[in-house]
Fold this protein.
Amino acid sequence: MDLGVFNLVRHLTDLPVVRASIIATVVAIGFNYLGFRYFTYRDRDKSGRTKELSLFFLFSVIGLVIQNGVLYAATYGFGWDTPLQSNVFKFLGIGIATLFRFWSYRTWVFRALPAREAVQAAESFLEQRGPASRAAEPDRVG
């Protein structure tokens, strides 16, 4: 998504490369939060949404600086600013920033539930199903 929006903004506007990249990164950050919260880490602790959002955006901004710093260095430091070169360094920046974001999101933002809470959540789920639905299931010998 990030590369697609980057190239779209780059070709439809006269914005400089790094500004187009920042716009694309911000759009991707919004979609990333939705994907992480509601799909990838949907089973993680959901208490403290304000803290979660704050940490997510803090680490996302650090990732944005890493990602666009690579592009900035290539474009303005080395003068590599053809469309192909911009895409290569944008891709490289995405890769480096993704490693940082993966670690930080998993470690600090979308924290796993403590084991006691996970067991309580599972027991609560089973209680909601009721005895009739559990009686229809075959016993498992483990």
User: Anything to note?
Assistant: The chain has a mean pLDDT of 87.
